[in-house]
Structures are given as C-alpha cells and as structure tokens.
C-alpha cells in the first residue's frame, strides 16, 4: 500500500498553512509552521510570483495532502467526480470525505488522518458488521462503523473514548461514544465540509 513517508510538517510549510497532519502538535507552539512560516528548503524564503497555474497546482497539492492521497489515486477521484452530475469540485470533496479513514478521524476516534489510516489498516473497525482494513474504503448513507470487540480496550481506543466530544463532529455523522460506534446519516454537502480548499481551482487544473 503506497503512502507518503516523509516529514508531515514539511508539507504544511510547503503549503504555507496548517494541514493538521500531526494531531495535537498542530495546536501547540512547537508546530514548525509557527516557528518557520515559509516553505522548506534552500530557497524557501524567496517570494514566488503567484501565477494562475501555481495557485491551481498548490490547491490540488493541499487537498491531496490533507486527505493523505497520492497523485494517481487523487486523479482517479477527480475523474470519477467529473462523471457525476452537479459540480465536479463538490463531488470530489464528497468522495474524499467518504473515505473510511477520514470518517474515523472526523468522528474523533483518531487524532489525525494518518493515525486513522493506521487504525483502519490494522483491522480495528467493522462496517455494517464486516471487518474492513482498507483506509480508502468508501462509506455510504446509513452505514454503521464500529470498533471491533477485541480492540475496544486497546490504549488508542480507550483514549479516544475518553476524548470523544472534544472535537466537533460534522452533522452528517453521529457518534455513540459508549459503543464506539459511528452512524453515517448521509454523505456530506459542501456546506458541511470545513476543509479550507478552493475546489474550483482543482477543477481548473485538471480541465486543462
């Protein structure tokens, strides 16, 4: 399973905005983007001219990195979204939001999407009673996601159960902390997705 294995904080510095890839560290004064708010590398402090193409590719990279998706898979999601009726950009974000690792993160069962991806990959979750260990698995309306019985007393799950409620859960999900269960009421509309991405720039990038 291909995935990015470099330093997450470099990705935030490259995009000049917090992507919230490291959980609680992103909210602390130790967050590298607070200390060095410029891109990494030898030429990081040199101001680049923001061309239309640069804005488009940076927005695409930002979305890709927020959701932890590699380029080939992200392009596949865009192709699928372009075939749907309605706005392509909104359909793309809905596809990304419906990934199982993102749902686990949004529900507060993991401090970051990386952590959620690991928990799903290790087989700690059931979807409608069946074990799913594929982070990119796409949930559907009325799906029920829950932690397996064997995993309920693992340290990450105990901590998650104690901290559920500290993060706002989007309206399209319902969390039942005592049962460590997530109900998917519907797939999210654009207004219910708080990801700070200008999806129209991504559409323009791929439309060329």
Topology of helices and strands:
Elements: H1 8-15, H2 32-35, H3 52-67, H4 71-83, H5 88-97, H6 100-106, H7 113-121, E1 125-127, E2 130-131, E3 144-147, H8 155-163, E4 173-176, E5 181-184, H9 199-207
Antiparallel strand pairs: 1-2, 1-3, 3-5, 4-5
Description:
The chain is α+β, with helices and mostly antiparallel strands and 208 residues long. Helix content is 41%, strand content 8%. It has nine helices and five strands, in the order αααααααβββαββα. It has helices at residues 8-15, 32-35, 52-67, 71-83, 88-97, 100-106, 113-121, 155-163, 199-207, and strands spanning 125-127, 130-131, 144-147, 173-176, 181-184. Strands 2-1-3-5-4 form a five-stranded antiparallel sheet, covered by helices on one side.
- The global form is globular
Largest sheet: 5 strands, antiparallel
Instruction: Name the strands of the widest sheet in spatial order.
Output: 2-1-3-5-4
SSE series: HHHHHHHEEEHEEH
User: Overall pLDDT, averaged?
Assistant: 85
First-residue to last-residue Cα separation: 30 Å
Q: What's the number of extended β-strand segments?
A: 5
């Amino acid at each position: 399973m291909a995935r990015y294995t470099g330093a997450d904080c470099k990705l935030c510095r490259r995009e000049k905005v917090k992507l919230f890839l490291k959980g609680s560290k992103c909210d602390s004064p130790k967050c590298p983007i607070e200390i060095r708010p410029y891109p990494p590398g030898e030429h990081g402090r040199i101001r680049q001219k923001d061309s239309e193409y640069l804005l488009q590719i940076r927005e695409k990279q930002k979305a890709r990195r927020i959701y932890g998706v590699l380029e080939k898979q992200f392009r596949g999601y865009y192709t699928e979204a372009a075939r749907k009726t309605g706005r392509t950009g909104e359909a793309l974000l809905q596809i990304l939001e419906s990934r199982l690792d993102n749902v686990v993160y949004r529900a507060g069962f993991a401090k970051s999407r990386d952590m959620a991806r690991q928990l799903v990959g290790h087989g700690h979750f059931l979807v409608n009673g069946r074990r799913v260990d594929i982070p990119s698995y796409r949930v559907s309306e009325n799906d029920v996601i829950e932690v397996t019985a064997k995993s309920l007393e693992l340290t990450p799950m105990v901590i998650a159960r104690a901290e559920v409620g500290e993060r706002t859960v989007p309206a399209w999900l319902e969390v039942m902390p005592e049962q460590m269960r997530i109900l998917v009421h519907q797939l999210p509309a654009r207004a219910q997705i708080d990801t700070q991405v200008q999806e129209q720039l991504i559409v323009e990038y791929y439309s060329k």
